[in-house]
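Hey L., structure's done. Input below.
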Amino acid sequence: MNNFLKEINFSKYSSIRIGPIAEVLVIEEMGEYREHRILGLGNNVLISKNHPNFAVLGSTFDYIENRDGLLHVGCATKSGKLLSYAKKNNLANFEFLGKLPGSMGGLVKMNAGLKEFEIFNYIHSIKTKDGYIKKEDIQYSYRHTNINTIVYEVVFNCNPGYSKAQSEVFKKMRDNQPQVPSAGSCFKNPQDDSAGRLIEAVGLKGFQKGNMAFSEQHANFLANMGEGTFEDAIYLINLAKQKVKEKFNIDLEEEIIIY
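Output:
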């Protein structure tokens, strides 16, 4: 299948419901694409009108295959699809995907997870245009990797034993998250602390600018209360960083990716 362009309205596509309408390249063939920024499903992004050229992986990279005891998953595959596969085939260590929306490419690139349950804990290798790279040859840490190229496939170790009990634990961990549009966690948790606690401690829990607010339900969620704007979101992000720096001398680092 050949690459093609499609129009995306980011105010509907992105989870925070902010952004312009733009033409996006749909990638169906492995390559370099240095002139494009790769988007997943738009779950942790805040997109301005002055964004770079975007691309998304197409249906060619939406697959799950069990080969020789390893699970090969295309990076356009949604986390929910992989979770369903793991349940059906009784595979362990995928339970945390239950409340972690996104495509596998996006989740791998940022080493997404819940608390200490990070996706890289279970990865065997990844596939780029240059072939397979083993996990041991990738630098990764909390919500970070040094991957600077497109990941087309992720390979997981396979272990039997899907745990319904573990799945319920993860659901409860996510129950305090707001149900209004947001981009997930706005800031990374500083070492031995939580961004939500710090934002609340400087009086910004529930604080609103225009139609954007730090959620009353979870202070580290920047929530769109309806027709929120990029400018108001940036204002709140900068305000939180400034106040936390002044009070605690801690530099909050965005988990949300701003374009």
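Residues 178-258 form a domain with the Uridine Diphospho-n-acetylenolpyruvylglucosamine Reductase; domain 1 fold (CATH 3.90.78.10). Residues 111 and 141 are 7 Å apart (CA to CA).

-- N.
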